[in-house]
């Protein structure tokens, strides 16, 4: 896994074209995955919500729109370049007053213990240098009984879909992404990082080892994306 500085520089570099490429290359399916995740994140009550590795803010804005009035969404990311368009997009959606942003490392969150009802991380934890530290931080900043919801890309289990996935992600994506962003290496990194991510049973075990209970995962779109959910134990 690359060092944090390398990841930060890479995402700063592709930030101007990130939104356009992200939705184009996923055929907007990522929006559907986020909508499903929101059902696990918001519960109709006033909540303090944390979006780790918030990037350009699609998930942050989705949380702010779905949460009950009076809720607050905090977005953190190590890339200032990625966050630059976030508040502009939030203002367009009319939810900028529900959002605050901070430059922060997901492995060393600058918050007091038990600060949030939910921690959400979409397509970011595979970029962590030390995933165990990130999961431990997610647990620390959650309130007792709070929930972590993680979306992450994965390799399809069906052979025919995996073959199409490999063709697209290993050959087509780096070519198109490189042409539009000017950084082909970044779009070679994407499929490599997905292939290197632990299999669902292994990652669920990491979550349990971090202290989460009721850990489970769900598969979306034939295994192209998986949602991982865990709960912080309530205090005795």
CATH topology grouping of the domain at 26-155 and 197-231: Rossmann fold
Q: Gyration radius, to the nearest Å?
A: 17 Å
Name the structural class.
alpha/beta
Distance between the first and last residues' Cα: 38 Å
Please estimate the helix content: 40-55%
Major β-sheet annotation = 7 strands, mixed
Strand content: 15-25%
CATH fourth-tier homologous superfamily of the domain at 26-155 and 197-231 = Vaccinia Virus protein VP39
**Can you identify the CATH class of the domain at 26-155 and 197-231?**
Alpha Beta
Order of helices and strands: HHEHEHHEEHEHHHEE
Which spans have pLDDT < 50 for at least 5 consecutive residues?
none
**Residue-averaged pLDDT:** 88
Task: Characterise this structure.
With 236 residues, the chain is of the alpha/beta class. It has a domain at 26-155 and 197-231: Vaccinia Virus protein VP39 (Rossmann fold, 3-Layer(aba) Sandwich), CATH 3.40.50.150. It is built from 9 helices and 7 strands. A 7-stranded mixed sheet has the order 3-2-1-4-5-7-6, with helices on both faces. β1 (48-52), α3 and β2 form a beta-alpha-beta unit. α1 crosses α7, α2 (29-41) packs across α3 (58-66) and α3 packs parallel to α5. The longest helix has 23 residues, at 4-26. It starts with a helix and ends in a 5-residue tail after the last strand.
Question: Secondary structure elements and their pairing?
Answer:
Blueprint: H1 4-26, H2 29-41, E1 48-52, H3 58-66, E2 72-77, H4 80-83, H5 86-93, E3 99-103, E4 116-122, H6 131-141, E5 142-153, H7 159-181, H8 184-196, H9 200-210, E6 213-220, E7 225-231
